[in-house]
Amino acid sequence: MAYSPRRSSGLFSGLVLIIVGVLLLLHEYRGFELIRLFTHWWPLLIIALGLIKLYERTAGSRYVEPGAARITGGEIFVLVAVLAIVGVVIAVEEGEKHFSDHFGFDMGNSYPFDLDAEPRKVPEDARITIRGTRGDITVRPGDGPEIRVSGKANIHTWNERDAEKLRQPTSVQITQNGDGYEVFPTGEKDDRISVDMDVTVPPRSGVTVRNDKGDVSVSDLSEPVTINNGNGDVDVRDSGDDVNITSHKGDLRVSDTKGNVKLEGHGGQVDVIGATGGLTLSGEFYGPIRAEKIAKGVRFISQRTDLLLTQLSGHMEFSSGNLEIADAPGNLTLRTSKYDIDIENAGGKVEVQNRGASVDVRFSSTPKDDVQITNSNSTISLSLPSSASFEIVADCHSCDISSDFAGGTLEQTSNSGDAHLQGKFGSGRGPKIVLKTSYGSISLHKTSTAEPAPAAKPAPPAPPATPPANPRKPTPAPKAAPTSDSQT
Fold it and tell me: What is the C-alpha R_g of the chain?
């Protein structure tokens, strides 16, 4: 019987089915990553097709079979069908991995597995770096000079069999890197795996935490703390030294720090309470920003705002288009726009520049230094004690000036819709006040103070006791007899 090489045209389809079947089997039972194969090695399919067709053409030429190496419609259909099946498998798997990131809830169920690392002895002042990819990290001081880690792998899959398969290569390790030490999870490359770590370190160790996704909490360490977090909240409490945090998305909270606090990047809400050093905040943070009792002041820099407070014994808050500062004993310099500004009891020099929102500054006692407020398209309100002494220059373009203060050398004029107030008030030498705005108004108020309560009148002295009607004279004591010289 003569051999027909045309039958060899089925070789390509058969090889494609065998290869793809083996790959799907490896993917199902050994965790083989199909997406990586097809995104990086797909040209191999074209090479395989070319080799098979070259073989068919060579074999066909022996039997003078023209068109033996021609690509048939059936082969094209098999190739497209196989690629479609692989594409569906990859799409389902990737959807399972990333569904929680885009829609806010997990696909399938969560299966937790405990992870423990062997404790490791380290120097009391060791430098320790803790790295995570997905999962929460908690760091706190331990009892001795060692690192201890307890963890939990949370695996999101449709069934426990798949979770157990993904859990097998996952662990937590403690390694030495030069003169420092590193703590990190292994085997969590799959997006469905997150590893939470609870790490105890020597109290005097310097700690650096780097995490891609998850919350970070650090407490009660006496050395500097550095945190670089991607997506998650950060909480640092009772630190004995400087705190440096870089955030990309999440809320930040730092409390009771005996050092400086530096926050940068992007995020939501920021709360910093109680720092013996200063607070530096640079970046774009969209939640409420609160600071309280910062001994060496606050520096805040963003695309919209540049704020410098040399001291803050009270509080500061940015929220919903409002900026409030109360009890800042030092100098205050602020440049911003479209924030309604409320400042109370600034203790030093005040310089404010704003645009498109109101500025309200109040003093309960006479300002100790100069005050300069510049605004546009909105109002300026300044409140001073009635007993204050000051020198003022106020200009309002296309707006009016109202003042509760009169007398001294104060003189107010208006011309073509513009208003001007200039002069001195009071008997002493006071600060210089400069106010400028346009298309708004300027108001100068006397600080309202509650009248002191009248002092209570002292009770009248009690009247002397009334003597009896017939007093008897007291009997005088008998005189002593004189003594002789011989008796002395």
Answer: 41
Q: β-strand 270-275 against 289-294: which pairing, if any?
A: parallel
The pLDDT profile of the chain, 488 residues, written as one tens digit per residue, is: 444 444 444 565 666 667 666 766 665 554 555 555 555 555 666 676 667 666 666 665 555 455 555 556 666 666 677 667 666 666 665 565 555 444 444 456 778 888 888 899 999 999 999 999 899 999 999 988 999 999 888 887 777 777 777 777 788 999 998 889 999 998 766 777 889 999 999 999 999 999 999 999 999 999 999 999 999 999 999 998 999 999 999 999 999 999 999 999 999 999 999 999 999 999 999 889 999 999 999 999 999 999 999 999 999 999 889 999 999 999 999 999 999 999 999 999 999 999 999 999 999 998 999 999 999 999 999 999 999 999 999 999 999 999 999 988 999 999 999 999 999 998 878 899 999 999 999 999 998 654 444 444 455 555 554 444 444 444 444 444 444 333 32
Q: Which helix (H) or strand (E) holds 477?
A: none
Helix extents (H) in 104-171:
160-167
Question: How many residues comprise the chain?
Answer: 488
pTM, to two decimals: 0.70
Token output for 300: 């805040």
- Distance between CA atoms of residues 365 and 289, nearest Å: 28
Question: What is the number of alpha carbons within 13 Å of residue 281 lying toward its C-beta?
Answer: 33
d(CA 122, CA 139): 16
219/142 Cα distance (integer angstroms):
11
